[in-house]
Amino acid sequence: MRVVVQQEPFDFGAEAEAFARGQTGMGAVVTFTGVVRDLDTGGLEAMEIEHYPGMTQKAIAGVAEKARDRWSLGDVLVIHRYGRLAPGERIMMVATAAPHRKDAFEAAEYLMDYLKSRAPFWKKEITAEGADWVAAKDEDEAALDRW
Amino acid sequence: MRVVVQQEPFDFGAEAEAFARGQTGMGAVVTFTGVVRDLDTGGLEAMEIEHYPGMTQKAIAGVAEKARDRWSLGDVLVIHRYGRLAPGERIMMVATAAPHRKDAFEAAEYLMDYLKSRAPFWKKEITAEGADWVAAKDEDEAALDRW
Amino acid sequence: MEVLYFAWVRERIGLPRETVETGAATVRELVEELRAREDRYEAAFADLSALRVALDQELRDFDAPLEGVREVAFFPPMTGG
Amino acid sequence: MEVLYFAWVRERIGLPRETVETGAATVRELVEELRAREDRYEAAFADLSALRVALDQELRDFDAPLEGVREVAFFPPMTGG
């Protein structure tokens, strides 16, 4: 299991390739990448991501451990950035490997659902009009109910 | 939408990177990669994949079109190899992009479920003892019921 | 009409494709004609529930009509992905 | 006890962390002490349903006891991923 929390960009293609290459006996590799998306109304200048340094790594590793208890998994990778990101930049990625595709998909979705609502990150949207903290969505909290 | 059916290996990391980079307005990119896995009992020398050239591209494109009708998606990529593959080689990949993660995940799983049972590929496992066609699994057919 | 065989259907029949002259109205009638030919066809078509059929490269069922069809393909359930 | 604030909680209170001397037995009691201090704390803690709390870097609820706790963090619901 590898958990990386960093300000710098990461190389998605190289990370995905290295992750997949490192697996043995795994038939399925799933990756998810989150990208800074412009607002539906346009005008996003930047996304600022704040985090809680002492807790972040621990919280993510805890979620990844739970995923490994629950599914038959090979490796798990989580990379999450903080700081100021421009639209189009990649915020984070997860990768999961498993003997079978169902486990790899479910574990990746589980990781994403928990990272959304249980890892200590907060997003702020910067536009010409000012800055607004992103509100947590009810649907993200509801997404945890299925696990 | 890009559908590639080829004998040659593909570069998973480069394909994933190029796919993700090509998206605009998409917050989520999901990839799935299938890897030739050794038998549970060991001893797999190669996997031979036969396909139906006239139908393969058409069948995959049809499934991808259905995914695009059903979910709010950006681009869709499917690469599937045929011919003789060694354990550890990548058989295929799909990638989906969507504004939101749920759509990207569901579309990728839908594509995989349909490719498994509805695209004209057949796998044969080669061991020292001989060659055996892989039997379709009831669970793969059952996986289609949820869509 | 072109008839194609894949995977173990191809192996049992011993060839990947052939041109067949037939007046069969449906896939099922075509299968009966082929089965009557030789043991290797009988062996390939013994259990239709283990087979799938495509007409002009679209999956269909065994009761589908053959009128206007140029290419029929028989194969086991797919195992891609 | 170290008390940390993140996101708009940090902005409303105007500082990221401070050391607090308290005899509060639970998080809820600590919150009441902080609210009583100044308007900016009152503004930050006005609606507890909009807040989350971590004790020594683990998510807990507002009735959790503070005994033995070295670090308390207050923040809005997380929005990672």
Describe this structure in words.
The complex is a heterotetramer, with two copies of chain A (147 residues) and two copies of chain C (81 residues). Chain A is an alpha+beta fold. Chain A has one domain: Alpha-Beta Complex (Aldehyde Oxidoreductase, domain 3), CATH 3.90.1170. Chain A is 35% helix and 34% strand. Chain A contains four helices and eight strands; from the N terminus they run E-H-E-E-H-E-E-E-H-E-E-H. In chain A, strands 1-4-6-2 form a four-stranded mixed sheet, with helices on both faces. In chain A, strands 5-3-7-8 form a four-stranded antiparallel sheet, with no helix packed on it. By secondary structure, chain C is α+β, with helices and mostly antiparallel strands. Chain C has one domain: Beta-grasp domain (Ubiquitin-like (UB roll)). Chain C is built from three helices and five strands. Chain C has a five-stranded mixed sheet. In chain C, a hairpin with a 2-residue loop joins strand 3 and strand 4. The model of chain C has no long low-confidence stretch (mean pLDDT 97). Classes of the chains: A alpha+beta (147), C alpha+beta (81). Chains in contact: A-B, A-D, B-C. Strand 2 of chain A pairs antiparallel with strand 2 of chain B. Chains A, B: GO terms for molecular function: molybdopterin synthase activity. Chains A, B: It catalyses: 2 [molybdopterin-synthase sulfur-carrier protein]-C-terminal-Gly-aminoethanethioate + cyclic pyranopterin phosphate + H2O = molybdopterin + 2 [molybdopterin-synthase sulfur-carrier protein]-C-terminal Gly-Gly + 2 H(+).
